[in-house]
Amino acid sequence: MTEKKLNNEDLALVITKAGRILIENGAEIWRVEDTMTRLALAYGADSVDSYATPTMLIVSFAKDGHLIHNVKRVRLKTVDLAKLAEVNALSRQAGDRAISLEALSVQLTDIEKRNDDTFLVNIIGAAICVLGFAFFFGANFHEALWAIIIAVLAKAFTFLAGRYVPSAFFNHLAASFILTFLAGAAAHIFPLNRDTIIISGLMLFVPGLAITNAIRDSVGGDLLSGLSRATEALFIAIALALGSVLGFMLTEVLW
Question: Which residues contact 247 (CB under 8 A, 6 or more apart)?
């Protein structure tokens, strides 16, 4: 079966699809804009203007005597470096004229639909990360084990809750509350260092990528995106702090 021939409007849609996949999975703003520009030029655009923020993509290009525009709203936010690598590889193939626009559209759709962020992967990743942080902060074997158990429970809750309440503020607040309360309960029953368990688990939810991208975007001159991502990281930090305070208050009331 032959591929459907795509027109200039379809090219704009494919470009913003590539940009959306990048920005939804943790790419820097400059990379998103650069990829959209390269794709437009690779498929015959005469001049291109691309603009990206953490919540919106805009591309405008001239081709065959027509001025084509497309705007795309971005909502989903996660981190998947494998998808970033695959989109970058497709962008290089397009620049080398090694892939047709039709094939590019199909492969981008496949990348977008693929879901590697499964519950089991999240749990295993959380356990490994917390184990490393626990020993880094001086925990003994029992404290590291409790840190893993408590952090995995918090991660499982946020993973499942995120499907129904896609609010980073609420999910991080709930995670820090669960961590603090369960660590306090465990330290009340067993001779454990509560603070070490809490900080080891909280490191799992610290918005490190958002902070890094905020600095990178600001240094690169994308001040709006840098400010937006810095604000996002600030609100997540506030949620973590507020959840910890609530967890401490509850443990003080109970014990």
Answer: 176, 177, 178, 179, 180, 181, 183, 184
Per domain, the residue ranges of the chain are 8-113, 119-254
In the chain the beta strands, taken as DSSP E runs, fall at 47-53, 56-63, 66-73
Helix, strand or coil for residue 6?
Answer: coil
Q: For residue 69, report the phi and psi dihedrals to the nearest 5 degrees.
A: -130, 155
Alpha-carbon dihedral sign for residues 135, 199, 79, 122:
positive
> For residues 180 and 208, is the Cβ–Cβ distance under 8 A?
no
Per DSSP, the residues of 41-108 read HHTT-SEEEEEEETTEEEEEEEETTEEEEEEEE-------HHHHHHHHHHHHHHHTT-S-HHHHHHHH
pLDDT in tens, 187-227: 888 888 888 999 999 998 888 877 888 888 888 777 888 88
Q: CA 244 from chain center: how many Å?
A: 23
Q: Which residues contact 140 (CB under 8 A, 6 or more apart)?
A: none
The secondary element (H helix, E strand) that includes residue 152 is helix 141-161
Provide the token pair at 132: 């490393």
- Structure letter (DSSP) for residue 4: P
pTM: 0.77
Q: What is the pLDDT of residues 123-164, one digit of tens each?
A: 888 899 999 999 998 888 898 999 999 999 998 888 887 777
